[in-house]
Specification:
InterPro entries: Bact_OuterMem_StrucFunc, OMP_bac, OmpA-like, OmpA-like_sf, Pal, Pal_lipo_C. 57% of the residues lie in helices and 11% in strands. It has five helices and four strands. The chain has a four-stranded mixed sheet with strand order 1-4-2-3. Helix 3 crosses helix 4. The termini are far apart.
C-alpha cells in the first residue's frame, strides 16, 4: 500500500514532465514583408528607349525619303525614255523628187506623225535639215536643200505645230546618207532629216 502511495505522486510528476517536454514551441513571429519599390525601368533606361525610338523614326524617315527619291528618279528616267522612244518613232526622213522641194504624198503620213509627236510633247523642238544628191553645184544644192527644209516646216505649221519650235538648215550635197551612183541612192540622199534640239 505504501508502494502505491509513492507511485501516484511519481506518476503525476512523470505526466507533468512529459507534458512539458511535448509542448510545442510557440511559432516565431513572422515579420510582414517590407514594401518594395514597383518594378520598372530606370530614368536612364527610359531615356535610352526614347533615344532608340527617335533614331528608329529618323532612319525610317530617311529610308522613306530615299525610296521616294528613287521612285521619282525612276519615273523621270522612264518619262525621258518614253519621250526618246516617241521621237525615234516619229522623226523619220522624207525624200524628194529630183530637183524638187514639193512634199510627196508618200511622205505626208510621216509629217503627220511628226506633228502628232510635237503636239504630244510640247517641249519638243525639231531641226529640219535639207539635203540633196551629188548632182549640181554646191550653191544650187544649198538653195535646194533650204527650199526642202522650208517646205517641211510650212507643212508642219499647217498641221498645227508652232513655227518657233521648228528650225531649218541646209547641207546641200555635203552630207550624203549613202554613196551609190544610182537613182535609188540619189533618192535616199534627197531628203529632209528631223532631229530633236
Amino acid at each position: 500500500m505504501r508502494f502505491v502511495r509513492n507511485l501516484i505522486p511519481l506518476s503525476v510528476v512523470l505526466t507533468l514532465g512529459i507534458g512539458v517536454a511535448c509542448k510545442k514551441p510557440a511559432p516565431a513571429p513572422v515579420e510582414p514583408p517590407k514594401p518594395t519599390a514597383p518594378a520598372g525601368p530606370t530614368q536612364e533606361e527610359i531615356d535610352a528607349q526614347k533615344r532608340a525610338a527617335e533614331e528608329a523614326a529618323r532612319r525610317k524617315a530617311e529610308a522613306e525619303a530615299e525610296a521616294a527619291r528613287k521612285a521619282a528618279a525612276a519615273a523621270e528616267a522612264e518619262k525621258a525614255a518614253a519621250y526618246q522612244r516617241a521621237a525615234d518613232a516619229a522623226l523619220k526622213n522624207i525624200n524628194f523628187a529630183f530637183d524638187k522641194s514639193d512634199i510627196r504624198e508618200a511622205d505626208k503620213g510621216k509629217l503627220q506623225a511628226i506633228a502628232d509627236f510635237m503636239k504630244a510633247y510640247p517641249q519638243a523642238k525639231v531641226q529640219i535639215a535639207g539635203h540633196c544628191d551629188e548632182r549640181g553645184t554646191v550653191e544650187y544644192n544649198l538653195a535646194l536643200g533650204e527650199r526642202r527644209s522650208h517646205a517641211a516646216q510650212a507643212y508642219l505649221v499647217g498641221l498645227g505645230v508652232a513655227s518657233d519650235r521648228l528650225t531649218t538648215i541646209s547641207y546641200g550635197k555635203e552630207k550624203p546618207l549613202v554613196t551609190g551612183k544610182d537613182e535609188a541612192s540619189w533618192l535616199e540622199n534627197r531628203r529632209d532629216e528631223f532631229k530633236l534640239q
